[in-house]
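Box S1 | Example of a co-folding query
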Amino acid sequence: MWLAPRHNVAMPSILPLDDRSIAIAVEHIRAGRLVAFPTETVYGLGGDATNGAAVAAIFEAKGRPRFNPLIVHVPDMIAARRIGDFDKRTEELASRFWPGPLTLVVKRRADSGISELASAGLETVAIRMPADRGARTFLAEANRPLAAPSANRSGKISPTTAQHVADELGDAVALILDGGACEVGLESTVLDMSGETPVLLRPGGAALEELEEALGRKIEIAGPGAAIASPGMLESHYAPGLPLRMEAARAAAGEALLGFGPAPAATLNLSESGDMREAAANLFAMLRTLDRPDFAAIAVMPIPEQGLGRAINDRLRRAAAPRC
Ligand code: TXA
Ligand code: MG
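Box S1 (continued) | Returned holo structure for magnesium ion
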C-alpha cells in the first residue's frame, strides 16, 4: 500500500471519502497514526483506541492540557458489546438511537482492550456508533475501535468541514477524509448509563425528551452544582488509593517510584527515553499497578511541563491533591 510521505508542510492531505481513501486511512490507523473523519455530528480526530501511543497522539494534536476521557467509535453492536457491558435498558436505547448522535457511557469490560488513556483510567467507557455511512465503513474496515474527540484544537470550535480540520490541525493528522459538511453539526448527547440513574453528561444531537420517553423515566442532568458531574468537570476522576507525591528525585522508604527518563531505581518507568507519548500511554495503567497496599505512597519523578507533559502533570496534580 502506498502511503503519503510525512513531511513538514503544514497542510495534511485531504481525500474525498471513498473506498480508496478508506483503505489508505486504515493503513494509517494500523500504523498508529491519526485520521480525521466525518461523522453526522462533527469531524472526529480518530486513532486506534487500543493503542495507547495513538491515543496519546490525539491529546497531543489537540493540545489538550488535560486527559479527558474520549469517545470510542464502533461500526456495530457486536463491536460495542466487546468493549462495554450493555444492560437491557441500554441495549434498548442503543437499538433505538444507534446509529446516531448519542454516546452511551457504560461499564468498561475488563477484556475490552481499550487503552487506559482513552477512558482516562475510569471504570467506564463512552461508546458511540455514528450514523454517517462513510464513517461506519471506515470503522468496519479499520476493524478496531477508534477513539475520536472532535477534530479541533482544545478550546476551539468543533469542525464541521474537512477544511476546518486542515486549518486547525495541520499535519498532526496523517489524512483527512472529506465527507462534506456534517449534517448535525453539534456533538453527540452523552448519557451515562453506568449507574442506577441515567445521567445526562452533555446535551447534544439526541434530544433529552426523546431519551426520557424511550427510557420511560426522567434523566438526571449533570452540571455545576448537580450531584454528578462529567469527568471533564470534576476536580479528580481517577485518583489512586495511595497518597501521591510529585517532583520526587528518589523514593522514600516504602514508596513506589514512578520514573520518567533514565532511572534505574524506578519501580516502573513511564518512559525510560523520556518520550511523552509513551509516558502518556503508560500513565493510568502504571498508576493502577503501583496502587497496592504493600507500598506506602507513590512518588513520581519530575515531568517537563511542555506538550503532553502538561496533561500528564495536570492529572498527577489532581491525583496528588488532598482528598475530600
Ligand atoms: O459528536 C461527538 O460525540 C464527537 C464525534 C467526533 O463523535 N466526539 C466528541 O468527543 O465530541 P469529545 O472527546 O470531544 O467528547 C467526549 C465527551 C466529553 O464530554 C467527556 O467528558 C465524555 O464524552 N466522556 C467520555 N468518556 C466518558 C466516561 N467514561 N464517562 C463520562 N463521560 C465521558
Ligand atoms: Mg470537543
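The chain has two domains: 13-221, 244-320. The two ends are 54 Å apart (CA to CA).
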